[in-house]
Amino acid sequence: MTSPSLFEQLGGEAKLRRIIDRFVDSVFDDVMIGFFFDRANRARIKAKEYEFAAQHLGADVQYSGRPLREAHARHPIMGGQFMRRLQLLRDALQTEDVPDHIVQHWVEHTESLRDQVTQDSGGRCDPVAAAERVRKSEHS
Fold this sequence. Notes:
Blueprint: H1 6-10, H2 12-29, H3 42-56, H4 68-72, H5 79-95, H6 100-112, H7 114-117, H8 127-138
């Protein structure tokens, strides 16, 4: 007997669709990153996000969207914007009471895709380096 997939442990399709609806709505409506979605079809993004999440959570669902690097290539997504999206994901997962081990898997999976989404050097947001740049500019 096989153990239930993360998708099944989460609660299946209905629960994942609730999470994705909440998450995508928050991304579209966010003042920091929502502008990336000005021309996007919200229902289509929800469908692709559902497929993508269901697949990495172990459901028998195929992702039918473009490869991530191709889908994000025309957007100048920086590390901080990537982190903002990740925070909105965490917020949606917390609001929907997703078990910690599923949150951890989902966040780690998302982090593993960072270099396919961001265009800045390494796709990282380094708050220490940013603070140092601000400090130097204030003393110039």
